[in-house]
Amino acid sequence: MRIGIPKEVKIEEYRVGMAPAGARDLVRAGHEVIVESGAGDGSGYADDSYCRAGARIVQSATEAWDVDLVMKVKEPLVEEFDYFRPGLVLFTFLHLAAAPSLTERLLRERVRGIAYETIRDGSGRLPLLRPMSEIAGRMAIQAGAHSLQRKNGGKGVLLGGVPGTSRGRVMILGGGVVGTAAAEVALGMGAQVTVLDTNLDRLTDLEERFGVAIETLYSNSHHRDELIPQTDLIIGSVLIPGGKAPRLIQRSDLKRMEAGTVLVDVAVDQGGCIETCRPTFHDQPTFMIDGVVHYCVANMPGAVPKTSTSALTNATLPYVQELAKDGIVAALGRNQYLAEGVNTWDGYCTNRLVAKASQHEFRPLPSLLETLPSSGYEAETD
Description:
Blueprint: E1 2-5, H1 20-28, E2 32-36, H2 47-52, E3 56-58, H3 61-65, E4 69-71, E5 89-92, H4 100-108, E6 112-115, H5 130-147, E7 169-173, H6 177-188, E8 192-197, H7 200-210, E9 214-218, H8 221-227, E10 233-236, E11 262-265, E12 286-289, E13 292-295, H9 305-326, H10 328-334, H11 336-339, E14 342-345, E15 348-349, H12 352-358, H13 365-369
Parallel strand pairs: 1-2, 1-4, 2-3, 4-5, 5-6, 7-8, 7-10, 8-9, 10-11, 11-13
Antiparallel strand pairs: 6-14, 12-13, 14-15
């Protein structure tokens, strides 16, 4: 199979779809890996490191996209839409529930879009999203603590405080991977931490892990309303795989927050769970509404690309190896968990939540696969 790794074009996105170590394994398995020149520079991987791994360096994005399967990190932007074509397999984070124009173009061009964030394992976990979620959760507290500094618009609160002063209070909406990682760092900094979730088993796990150091509450409007006026930092980390994040903090809630309160919405790439959040970038990560600081960078792990790219390659490599070994159709037919990652296929929307969010007809992937041969990499087109 011919696998392309183009350079990311999102503002201040320094990650790359595959580290040289992953490229080496794919080449040794008999596949051709084509890397756009400079794609790995932001992560500390020069072109030479890919050449030593056996990959081929090309000078244009057009060449990197002219392959059987493209591996990226972030969802394609408008300037990349012209690279789409029928039968192209796109393997990346897509977040289509919050990206109607991208969904439309993928369907129109009959691209086979496989989203990292909707692939599950046998335990129902999200193995490709997990490493980025862990990084984002840790970074959310770092970003929030920095934003709380007075010079950045915050209250001037130190999360851990010092003897004789109050510690900062952190409210985390969602106790999944992001929320757990955020709680761990916040507790390590000495903050008072409350995690809200509707999954009681998850809250039990958090209490077993952190003991009395953490407070857990069932997530409902009553508990949120009680905490909002006394909280210094709110982390939004609620995830519905493939679907839009629920709006748990409303615009009206800002009026009840102290000036300089900080909101960090890690779910912003899925529409956000804080109504007033909108995507920002690392060069200007925050904005103010009603005296409240909003930090809404949609690619937070992109700020630590060396760690992020290595972790993402570790997670994605077994899946791309499976896709490449016997062909896309055979791999998806054999692995139901990998098949859950398919969001678009030959002009149809194959993820129920994405279809609902984008108002397209849902078509189950098995009904589309059964009409295709189980080998080969090229799509059958009209």
